[in-house]
Amino acid sequence: MKKFLYIILASFFSLTITSCAEKEESTTTDTTTTTSSDDSVTLSAPSGLTATGGASQVTLDWTAVSGASSYTVYWDNATGVSSSSTAITSVSTDNYTHSSLDNGTTYYYKVATVNSAGTGSLSSEVNATTSYTTASLTIGSQTYSNPFQSADVRCIDTDLTDNSTGDNIYYLDTIVYYDNKTLGQTAHFYKDSSCTNKYLETSVLTNEEGTFPIPFPYNKIGDNITVVQLSNYYDNGTAISVFDNSSNAVDNGSMYGLICNRDNSTSPFKMCMQIYPKSDSEVHFGGGGNFLSCSENSNDACTSPDNFTHIQLPSGSSSLTLKKYNVMK
Predict the structure, then answer these.
(1) Last residue in a domain, options 78, 103, 129
(2) Domain limits at 267?
(3) What is the pTM of this model?
């Protein structure tokens, strides 16, 4: 997965500054279950254990073991689950739904069979990643319910192959707003180099790096998103120019700041992105790393999203060019 993450993070969108000078994931074990009619002997581990991630939950399923009185599920949020891990006991069926989990998090599991002789050996480990649910994002008079896809459409080879077909896997980069008010980059997977044959499955098993959920969230842009209208485009009082992707000037008041959390007790917010809602099918984004507005100005306080009404450009910069994204259908 490290190789794929390096590829997609390297393709993260950029913006132009002119100088004056994004679950479900499923894995399967392939162990063999044996049974015993002797109640003085513990039973072997269940076979066929699978884990499937959903919103705030992971569903486990396995093959029932003859003679079992119950099952114990062991879990952790890191690989290496053992009998010392957190245990969920007295599971009476051959499946279990682990709920109230954090979204976008990978959980690891093993299952053991229980009879009157005690708890048997643990199964092979499986894991699944909980998923976020997409939500609508309102910017000014426009409400967007679908992800944003870069207009600079590039169908990118992941350097991964589908375990079931041996074919290469490709992806498109998108920006997605989730129901927990998180904005993130997500890879949508395709089966062809033109990115027209989309994966309809909820996950894909690769030969190189295991299972990926579809779509695959790989980069969090910001948490706790608040939308604030930017009334003026200034750099410490000096007017700056803002252009859309077609080099058209963006009028004051037409652009909005996406304010998100910042790990700073004095200034707990930052402007993680700017967005110009040009139409119901097209938006233009500006990246936020160097445009933190009040947090770069010692005379302002970043204690509320309402503090952000202007753009703070780096020293020596005079204009900002946004990047076009189309609204996916």
Answers:
(1) 129
(2) 226-327
(3) 0.64
